């Protein structure tokens, strides 16, 4: 891909995918650096690629980003939907999926935008890559995954805040577990990678950590609980990543209709684990599903800084002509990597990971 | 009941019922005031009335209470079970319920204990009252209900911490609700009284608050959500007390078996409300059940102080011969009230409550 | 004072004096209740009475108060200066103090304002009273003092947040005091009343609490520190209200010029106490002055609720014709009291206060 | 240095230098891994090298480390003094400094200790190195500096907590600065390196950041404050590292005696900067010195994890015969480096640092 440096005067920015603490800090850095350092005009598109397709946009000046650094969420809005290369359009009363990327390019041209900063997860970055490849649109990606499961960067913003929230929850559950001699199960995020569970579990003093990378058996989990009881420790703390799975089996959790109202969002793996422990050990067990609390709230100082560095670098790289790349953390530096290499390469917890090893050595069970 | 003042040299203390932030602060104040001010010996019974029945006890000196002021839970352990007047005993291979209160009195005599501080909820305080009435055991109660639903005291410790935890959760949900244009539902504690939901809802800027005292209709709840959308506010926050109920109906939520594992602790009213809103408005809705997080963690400064005042007053009142009473907050003073009057008298949210009125005036819907 | 009920269509609001967490929550409640419940127009004056005098004002609709509930400070700005009855005016190159209250009334008339909500401390409320008495301006006061030293109300907003901040500081100092076997001194706010020091001291497990109401001697303070050391407790925590004073003496702390720069804001009583302890006991002592951190930050849920109730009541009372009054907390109700009675009546810590008694019984020294 | 692997059965551990959040997490990991994984006996020495010299020690089992993970400080105690190679001994009524390292080796032999984990700053690690070089004592160092100014490791524990505390302080000061249109100055730690000021300043949205690495002029600082005022921003936030210095000058801050008590710990650079700004701009300025609050409190999840990894690695490396080394973070791995290389090599903020560049591009002034 030739890197012909474009004369950039106006840039666009959008946030796509699930929200993560630090998104606003990225937007703020993008706007401040673009306007102060390079005298650019910045246009923000609303609700991810939806706004780019439907041309919902507004100008972002320094005034718009005042006070947003400590705020969670994204002032631009975001969605998990709306792929311009596969967009639902109604035709003759039916919904068909079309490529509307041409409309996107028209909208950009209409705003006079020569470059885009696209902040998002794997899905958003793949769209960014496609826009770059197909239309040579100068684009720079900023990775966003609260799960920290991207191989191309040492860390992503939002992860530290999520781990902090989960650790605070474990600190709280500890006192109630102790007082009631219970098993407390906490389900945290992590569908494919167990980073949040691993980190929060170690930081929160868990006894069992279940992650997608290490299939567990209920027997091993209960063995740990019983071992603690024999040693006079009357409570246990279990952290379960939402994607954790027992050996050899998929969990089938279906939606059921019964009673006078139609229930219910059934619980996930956390509740399954809790029920099994109570059943197999006879020890009172309680389950908490942390859910959306992990995505919300004011970002930690770590995430504010990483997000700020990413946002500033995104603009700098765009002005240097590093198109089609994604910013990344290469400790202690901020670097970039081609979008083509970045997306799809997942960083999972390796079995030889030193934190896993340390956890095992301290007596934490992974249920295997 | 004659108040013959007993010469007290040794006292016992126990914590009963669900744990609440501040229990340790009460225990600490009891031990410090008893030993320093009155030169008493203090015996702590483990796991509520269970320890009193089975004579599991240990001496508490100042050393045992060092560092527990900021810690949640109770160093003595607690349970919701174990009533000495109705205690399960195995006889001829069958479990029968017996009155073992005589054994309790023997245990107390064995320790040379002349007075008891009983910290607990309605159930524990009723047992305390019975021990006082039947055996003239000098007893003083300390009320503990995280729901703050006791008529006899202006406030109970643990409530402020629970409201703080719920408010912090709402602050977090706000940012993610805004970013995704979603309805966020938060289920909080409060089976019979909606104090936590009301306070956290107002403090956390909720749009809808559903409490047991005000039956709601799904139509009214959705009306509020739709009204906000029409006004350009794309998200809504709904707080639901676990005991909230729709007009004219009990919720039947049953346990269902399906799939390869046996699910599941089905969600409660929070999930029901979330499903209905999504179904009726078509707006993406997410539900978080705060659960045990509300009972845990370090007590707020308010709760530490109230718990300390209660603990100190309990010992003072016991030494003054105010037996069969419960300490209470009569702002700004600590007073006492006969246990017989205190238990069973529930403080529910009155419809004319000024906070309910203020909430309505600010546009918060109670779903009625 | 005759209470002729005025037909009110437009009201003004201002915040005066030092800022306190919860001010924004009051403003928000005023605006929401005024507009939604009564259809009023609300004008906000900037920077306390300064904005009223200089006619710096802006309209406040619901839009202006979105998102301010959890935010500290005041969106209207505030100052400790600017009394319309004693206002500095330059005349012939000299500053003379004049009564410019007539100008205030003209400004109000210009906006068509028939009633004012004045949120402020003793100084602001006295001005409010004067405006009511002199001009029969329908005015309602909302008390604001972070020190909680107003007799006419059970509590003021901001106090709980300040105590929380001070308690968190004590929790932090505890660990470092323990590790280094040091005496840690924390100076907190409270020039005339020791409520913050008393509450934070008890909540934070202090060993010595020094407040304006109880003159102390350095000898007694050191006695406590030495007593602890003899008992094997190698550290001590001392909380000092900024207005605490030793027996029989004013502290003379002067500004000194020395060295290559002109120093310095000299430390206050906290540093004096720290130096004396180190000198008299030979134990390493460190001092922290909490200062403005106590005024800042997101209000606690308690303060948000109290502030909201105050704000809503202020508008309701104004519409009911309760002019010249101040809203107040009469647990569990919100009431009102004539401004004439409210101002100047200070609530200080009584020696017989049950919290002081409990603190003493637990071994906390007040240095007397 | 030959690495003859010793058969280790008993190890010692101590913490030296100023305390830092995470010390307890290191101790816990050392004890857990040593006992569970290797069956070792662990002896903890009290108060740094003082305990090693005076043979104040106690056995540490898993029981001793229960519950300490979330607690700040160190259960072993620590000091900045007590170098066994230069130890004050009284001889003939005079204090002379002697080498008492022989006594240290005798004490270790008396306990049957074959290896030491020494957790500390530059001073402690130099002593560790000397013990290894002179006596071939198998020793492994764990770096501890809250300032994060050690070249040999990507990060040290305690730093993230300190930055978090400073950022929270800035969040609080922001609201009060805004409300009162003031300049708020926050002095943070960092005598030789400005990492805390830089990170907290960026995370807390500061307008000016002054660090030891970049000499500043008061004129440039005030220029920024005035520039903001001209742009309608009525407040400014200034973060000052305690070691920040104006161009071309040492600050002479002397202790002065005046008034009826002997003042005072004079303020440091924070107060100097605050006074100058107020004097030169005429804008009200307030100064807060964060001081010891930065060292205290519960470690963040990040610091708990890093400390745990360091502690586990220390024991593993010791058992692998990697003597005379210091554990370090080489993202994403834990590695080690010879003590001789580690000590004395300071990591200061480079002018080309990407965070400094990003900060400048966003309009933050470094006063140069």
Automatic annotation (TrEMBL), chains A, B, C, D:
SUPFAM superfamilies: Phosphofructokinase
Cellular location(s): Cytoplasm
PROSITE patterns reported in the protein's UniProt record: PHOSPHOFRUCTOKINASE
Keyword terms, alphabetized: ATP-binding, Cytoplasm, Glycolysis, Kinase, Magnesium, Metal-binding, Nucleotide-binding, Transferase
E.C. designation(s): 2.7.1.11
One GO MF term: diphosphate-fructose-6-phosphate 1-phosphotransferase activity
Residue positions binding ATP: 18, 81-82, 121-124
Transmembrane parts of this sequence: none
Pathway(s) this gene product operates in, as recorded in its UniProt entry: Carbohydrate degradation; glycolysis; D-glyceraldehyde 3-phosphate and glycerone phosphate from D-glucose: step 3/4
Single Gene Ontology BP annotation: fructose 6-phosphate metabolic process
Main localization (coarse): cytoplasm
Catalytic activity from the UniProt record: beta-D-fructose 6-phosphate + ATP = beta-D-fructose 1,6-bisphosphate + ADP + H(+)
Active site: 147 (proton acceptor)
Pfam families listed in its UniProt record: PFK (PF00365)
Site (Important for substrate specificity): 123
Binding locations of Mg(2+): 122
Gene3D superfamilies: 3.40.50.450, Phosphofructokinase domain
One cellular-component annotation, GO: 6-phosphofructokinase complex
Stored HAMAP family: Phosphofructokinase_III
Protein role: Catalyzes the phosphorylation of D-fructose 6-phosphate to fructose 1,6-bisphosphate by ATP, the first committing step of glycolysis.
Family: Belongs to the phosphofructokinase type A (PFKA) family. Mixed-substrate PFK group III subfamily.
Self-association state and partner proteins as the record states: Homodimer or homotetramer.
Name of the protein this chain belongs to: ATP-dependent 6-phosphofructokinase
């Amino acid at each position: 891909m030739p890197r012909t440096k474009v004369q950039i005067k106006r840039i666009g920015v959008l946030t796509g995918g699930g929200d993560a603490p630090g998104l606003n800090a990225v937007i703020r850095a993008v706007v401040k650096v673009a306007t102060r350092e390079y005298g650019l005009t910045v246009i923000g598109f609303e609700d991810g690629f939806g706004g780019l397709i439907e041309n919902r946009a507004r100008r972002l000046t320094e005034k718009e980003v005042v006070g947003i650094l400590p705020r969670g969420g994204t002032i631009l809005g975001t969605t998990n939907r709306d792929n311009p290369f596969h967009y639902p359009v109604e035709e003759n009363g039916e919904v068909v999926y079309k490529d509307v990327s041409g409309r996107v390019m028209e909208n950009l041209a209409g705003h006079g935008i020569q470059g885009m900063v696209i902040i998002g997860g794997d899905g958003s970055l793949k769209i960014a890559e496609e826009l770059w490849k197909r239309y040579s649109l100068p684009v720079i990606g900023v990775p966003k995954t609260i799960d920290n499961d991207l191989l191309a960067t040492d860390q992503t913003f939002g992860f530290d805040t999520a781990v902090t929230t989960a650790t605070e929850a474990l600190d709280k559950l500890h006192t109630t577990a102790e007082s009631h001699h219970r098993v407390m199960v906490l389900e945290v995020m992590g569908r494919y990678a167990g980073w949040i569970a691993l980190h929060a579990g170690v930081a929160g003093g868990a006894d069992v950590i279940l992650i997608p990378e290490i299939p567990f058996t209920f027997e091993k989990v209960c063995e740990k609980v019983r071992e603690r009881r024999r040693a006079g420790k009357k409570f246990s703390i279990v952290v379960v990543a939402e994607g954790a799975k027992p050996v050899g089996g998929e969990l089938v959790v279906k939606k059921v209709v019964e009673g006078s109202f139609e229930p219910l969002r059934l619980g996930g793996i956390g509740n399954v684990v809790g029920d099994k422990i109570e059943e197999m050990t006879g020890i009172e067990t309680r389950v908490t599903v942390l859910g959306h609390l992990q995505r919300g709230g004011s970002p930690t100082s770590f995430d504010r800084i990483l997000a700020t560095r990413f946002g500033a670098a995104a603009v700098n790289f765009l002005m240097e002509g590093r198109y089609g790349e994604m910013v990344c953390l290469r400790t202690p530096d901020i670097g970039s990597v081609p979008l083509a290499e970045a997306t799809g390469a997942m960083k999972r917890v390796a079995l030889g990971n030193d934190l896993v090893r340390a956890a095992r050595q301290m007596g934490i069970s992974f249920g295997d």
